[in-house]
Amino acid sequence: MSYYPIFLQLEGMTALVVGGGGVAQRKVETLLAFGAKISIVSKELAPGLNRLADNGAIRFLGEEMQDAFFDDVSLVIAATDDAELNHQVSEGARRRGLLVNAVDQPADCTFIVPSIVRKGDLMIAISTSGKSPALSKKIRKRLDAQFGDEYADFLSLMGDLRKALLAMELPQPENSRIFHEIVESGIIEALARRDLVFVEALLRQILPAEVDLLSIMRKMR
Which CATH number belongs to the domain containing residue 54 in this structure? Predict the structure, then answer.
């Protein structure tokens, strides 16, 4: 089976997690990091999940799964150690047209969760279509070493530059030329060295003089 790669905007959406062990905790922590609201159902909760429930970071719905818990959620994670219960959760979610992931049960998934390398706004997702999570993990470690924090800095910088350039309403081909030249200029490598003087010098060669580069560079220091 092949999967269509997609990035979801989860900010403010509610995810239902069924299960309360270590695997469920990792799923919850990742979903929270991307802004999702979490409702959870489980007979028992791992200590970390208990703390999250006690401080109001997640909502504990009870010990037994109920159909009503599917209401007003956007996606479902079945992460119990009971394969049949995970299957039942998957069936209920599918009937409602919800995205569902059943851990280690690909046949019960409408989506799978990739290994992720994240450096600020740079996100690289690795999937083996469920065939070898171990290989995904190996590739993730290799990419994590290859792409350092300079990529997060670069994208932060590019966000400000892009906003400034688009406000100037230059012709699209000119914007495209500038953006590509910045990417190929060596700025990423200079950021890895924290050589902001060189970064500024390169940008002055590339950007129109009207861009307020001093204000943009001030945020990098």
Answer: 3.40.50.720
Above 80 in pLDDT, residue 1?
no
Q: What is the DSSP letter of 62?
A: E
User: What is the extent of the structural domain holding 186?
Assistant: 150-218
Strand runs (DSSP E) across the chain, as ranges? Answer: 14-18, 37-41, 59-62, 75-78, 99-102, 115-119, 122-126
- How far apart, in whole angstroms, are the C-alpha atoms of residue 37 and residue 59? 8
| pTM (two decimals) | 0.84
Last residue of a domain, one of 91, 126, 146: 146
Name the average pLDDT for the chain: 95
Taking alpha carbons only, the member of 183, 176, 221 closest to residue 203 is: 183
pLDDT at 179: 97
- CB of 76 closer than 8 Å to CB of 16: yes
